[in-house]
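To the structural biology subgroup,

Please find below the input and predicted structure for Protein kish, which we are adding to the shared reference set this quarter. The sequence is reproduced verbatim from the submission form. If anyone notices a discrepancy with their own records, reply to this email rather than editing the shared folder directly, so we keep one authoritative version.
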Amino acid sequence: PNDVYSLDGILVFGLLFVCTCAYFKKVPRLKTWLLSEKKGVWGVFYKAAVIGTRLHAAVAIACVVMAFYVLFVK
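Predicted structure (tokenized):
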């Protein structure tokens, strides 16, 4: 019930946010609409997309580990 306020809920949200922004970077219309701003509040989307594309192997491994944790351990 209180998954949003737990550490694993925040990690899941962060991973999903980074993966979603990295996907947005691959779609041309979304890239120009959402990722054009590099500073300010909208810059968070751009920075998450850069993290997702540069560290794609580490993000993918973290997603698999978190999925295993959420499905089988928690």
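Summary notes: The first helix runs from residue 7 to 26. The CA atoms of residues 38 and 46 lie 6 Å apart.

Regards,
Lab coordination
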